[in-house]
Amino acid sequence: MKKIIVPLTLLMSASAMTTAQNPFFDDFKGVHETAPFSAIDNSHWMPAIDRGIELAQQEVNAITMQRSVPDFDNTIVALERVGKDLNRVLNVFFPLLSANADDEMMTLSMEASRKLSEYSTNLILNEALWNRVKYVYEHKDLYDLTPEQQTLLQNTYDSFALSGAALEGEDRETFKKLSAELSELTTRFGQNVQKELPSYEVWLTADDLSGLPQSSVGAAAEAAAAKGREGEYLFTLDQPVYMAFMKYSDRGDLRERMYKLYTGRNTKGEYDNTEVLRRIAELRMQMGKLLGAKNYASHSLRRTMAQTPEGVYGLLDRLRDAYKPALKKEMDELTAYASALEGHAVEIKPWDYSYYSNKLRAEKYAFDEEALRPYFELNNVIDGVFGLATKLYGLKFVQNDSIEVYHPDVKAFDVTDANGKFVGVIYTDFFPRASKRPGAWMTGFRDQCVTEDGVNERPQVSIVMNFTKPTGDTPSLLTPYEVETFLHEFGHALHGLLTDVNYASLSGTSVYRDFVELPSQFNENYLTEREFLDGFARHYQTGAPIPQELVDGLVASAQFGAAYACMRQLMFGYLDMAWHTIDAPVADVADFERKATEQVQIFAPVEGSLTSPQFSHIFAGGYAAGYYSYKWAEVLDADAFSMFKQNGIFDKATADSFRTNILMKGGTENPAELYRRFRGQEPGIEALLERDGIKPQIAHPEQR
Hints:
- By secondary structure, this protein is mainly α.
- It has helices at about 40-65, 70-80, 85-100, 105-125, 125-140, 145-160, 170-195, 215-225, 240-250, 250-265, 275-290, 295-300, 310-340, 355-365, 370, 380-395, 480-500, 520-525, 530-535, 550-555, 560-580, 590-595, 615-620, 630-645, 650-665, 670-680, 685-690; strands at about 200-205, 235, 395-400, 410-415, 420-430, 440-445, 450, 455, 460-465.
């Protein structure tokens, strides 16, 4: 996801570089003030960041040196406006760092991280600024504030109070050092993951391809040919390549090889992350304790819906208890099926699960994901996913070739509402490349806000994925999972596009971490709705609509493996919480991970295979002590969609309520209140259990 609003320290003057030399030294002149990507090179980044920090420091000094009594406007709003020039640079730098970076840019990011860490730490520890913020907060009853203004004041106060502003003397200096080191290590962790992944190459011959679909074989042949090795087949660990191989390859030995390569990444050699993550966890532990919390999670969760580690574990444990009996039933059935298929007793290994479960799913439901690919041609899917927003919210998307993009694969679209009013810009970036990190995400090049002059600055968002690439005469044909991923990230994009607030720090996805996945996961529900699929799912060659039997198979199989999928997510959640509730440094990463996840482990641990060294969400992203939020939001999204199912999946009144109370509000109010306003009641886990076909074994109270 995103969010780069970093309002500090005087570093160096960049005034020697002229506007003509650095595109960040002047307003962007492109369509809708979009970024001039072709004019930016790596030499521009650090001077622009340095200049942004210098200007931000001047703005902070103007706040602290004024003689006026602190009030909401001259302190809180003024601080909200600090760093506009810096944020304009960072809102281009960080999205490109993930989506289109070279080695030089990655090296620069280490320097940038150090400076930005010092900047933000100095801001938080600016005693004069903190005293003004505290004064306004303690006298808030004197001001007639709107709910949004109240939230901005509370967030501003919390950002200082929960980040060490009240620390004094030696503790302040210790906090600064810990923050600087943590910033550097989280950057290094992410870069190690990004750099190691493209280094893996598995070369196979025609004799090794049994079971693989033509889409995988064709892509592997093209990859090999591109390296001058005609007649061979190159498989990488890019997500679509790896997932297809594990699902379809008849060769258990090769599946095992791929699995161990994939899960053994960043555990040794140049890009080893084991020591990096141990130190990250230790630094966070120390910072949490320094700030008066029992551990990092206790500190981090104060501004979430869950509020405490106990709140998180309460949800994880409830779901574990509800899904565990169903998991045993699923695995017993799968083991019996695999044994009958092979003619001898089979013990399902982690590299076998996708293979056998795919075959069992196809047999039970006459359903094969590969049979669906021809109906999910990427351009048609784009029309369908964008069309969902048209049906629900009246939005229209028109490709605008006048908007400059940062890579030939990227496209830009103007977004307008039902009245033709400009809503924002969305960039789409779908295919893997060496300069892009794995996975899928939404980010933004500009956040929506109302400027000091009263102009409603509309957002510029981006959705980035790693889908199956076109090969030869065959276009990009997606799996249902990839369509679901598209729907997910597009939900985040809608949250960013439709927001209509005053302050950038409260716009779009700037909400509680365990609320941010609601709009994205809500969108996923449409994948199994015939009424939605009929709008775009047509055979890319014949134009025939998707057959009813394939839709029936997709719908019927949606619950297949639900317990396995849930338990896998719970494993990530328990592992995350374990790392962030430590009270002493961890000695052995493998042993720690095994103990942290043993209550939800599906398979016996495999030596050399670890999750933590590649767990970018928590060690390089914004989900430290927050991975549980995917399941938390899943409870919300199932509950929310049950209202659409009741009223009609495209019901205008329900969609208007979701847009008005959820998507437009950003982080301007407590999300629990926003959800109650939309739903009319508290959420519970019942809708999720029903959607997954799970019958709870015990009585479960409401989630909250």
